């Protein structure tokens, strides 16, 4: 018992720490504490030092001096590369979808359709469509103007109609320089015409491809009803973009001599495809 009391007494003994002026022996600063208080103060000081160091590392640029920790520029580049990689993956998906749909159209198959998901958070039952007086007048005027137009129907020839009953508009007027030939795999008719002549769409349809290739220069491809596709190559300039709706006889490009191969002067390379099979344009169009 005596030893325990003696030990407890040592922890409760007070000690004084003082600072004196060595010349005048004047007491400048002093503090009194026990051993337990000194141990508690040391622990608090240790925790304070750890907290300050953690804050400096977490909220200042000092963390960049830690080996293996990336700096601001490197982390920014990592984030930007991740964003660009995600965008690149999306563009590759769109490109693959476009090539698949184009191959399906040329082969006469049905392309993949995008199904629009309806927004279930909105109520569409209360929507009422009203026709204004101005809209009725405009509709009557358009119907009167297009009453005798050959290209008035936006859907083009009736589905299922034979090719003989379809009126093909000549894309250009000129001289046929090269005929359609299955043996040489020349699936087109080449027409020589005046330089910078206007190329017209042969039927109503939708532009499904525009671009430039080394062999055929500027190319435009149009999808028509009844699985008919028309192709126009070696153009000097394209007047339409992919997705545009065109009418029969509407200007779509300018005759040229673009492309480094398969061309010897300004002319139009014109192709007709039906259900994925090439057609001889001369059998349906008078150039």
Topology:
Layout: H1 2-12, E1 14-20, E2 27-34, H2 35-59, H3 72-106, H4 133-145, E3 175-178, E4 189-192, E5 198-200, E6 205-213, E7 217-224, E8 228-238, E9 245-246, E10 251-255, E11 268-274, E12 277-279
Antiparallel strand pairs: 1-2, 3-4, 4-11, 5-10, 6-7, 6-9, 7-8, 8-10, 8-11, 11-12
Question: How would you portray this structure in words?
Answer:
The protein is α+β, with helices and mostly antiparallel strands. The chain folds into 3 domains: 2-62, no CATH class; 73-112, no CATH class; 163-283, Glucose Permease (Domain IIA) (Distorted Sandwich), CATH 2.70.70.10. The chain is built from 4 helices and 12 strands. It has helices at residues 2-12, 35-59, 72-106, 133-145, and strands spanning 14-20, 27-34, 175-178, 189-192, 198-200, 205-213, 217-224, 228-238, 245-246, 251-255, 268-274, 277-279. The strands form 2 sheets. Strands 3, 4, 5, 6, 7, 8, 9, 10, 11 and 12 form a 10-stranded antiparallel β-sheet that branches. A two-stranded antiparallel sheet has the order 1-2. Strand 7 (217-224) and strand 8 (228-238) form a beta hairpin. The longest helix is centred in the first third of the chain and has 35 residues, at 72-106. Residues 150-160 have low confidence and may be disordered.
């Amino acid at each position: 018992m005596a030893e325990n009391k003696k030990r407890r007494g040592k922890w409760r003994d007070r000690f004084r720490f003082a600072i004196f002026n060595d010349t005048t022996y004047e007491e400048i600063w002093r503090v009194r504490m026990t051993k337990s208080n000194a141990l508690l103060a040391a622990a608090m000081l240790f925790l304070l030092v750890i907290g300050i160091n953690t804050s400096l590392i977490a909220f200042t640029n000092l963390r960049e001096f830690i080996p293996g920790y990336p700096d601001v520029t490197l982390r920014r580049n990592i984030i930007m590369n991740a964003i660009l990689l995600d965008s690149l993956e999306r563009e590759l998906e769109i490109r693959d979808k476009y090539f698949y749909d184009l191959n399906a159209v040329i082969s006469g198959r049905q392309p993949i359709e995008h199904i629009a998901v309806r927004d279930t958070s909105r109520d569409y039952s209360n929507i009422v469509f009203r026709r204004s007086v101005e809209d009725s007048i405009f509709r009557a005027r358009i119907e009167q103007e297009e009453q005798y137009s050959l290209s008035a129907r936006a859907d083009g020839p009736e589905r299922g109609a034979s090719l003989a009953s379809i009126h093909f508009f000549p894309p250009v007027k000129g001289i046929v320089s090269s005929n359609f030939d299955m043996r040489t795999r020349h699936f087109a008719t080449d027409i020589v015409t005046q330089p910078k002549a206007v190329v017209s769409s042969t039927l109503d349809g939708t532009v499904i491809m525009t671009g430039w290739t080394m062999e055929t220069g500027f190319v435009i491809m149009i999808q028509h009803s009844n699985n008919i596709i028309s192709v126009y190559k070696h153009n000097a300039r394209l007047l339409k973009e992919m997705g545009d709706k065109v009418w029969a006889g509407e200007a779509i490009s300018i005759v040229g001599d673009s492309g480094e191969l398969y061309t010897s002067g300004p002319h139009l390379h014109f192709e007709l495809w039906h259900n994925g099979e090439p057609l001889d344009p001369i059998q349906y169009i008078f150039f």
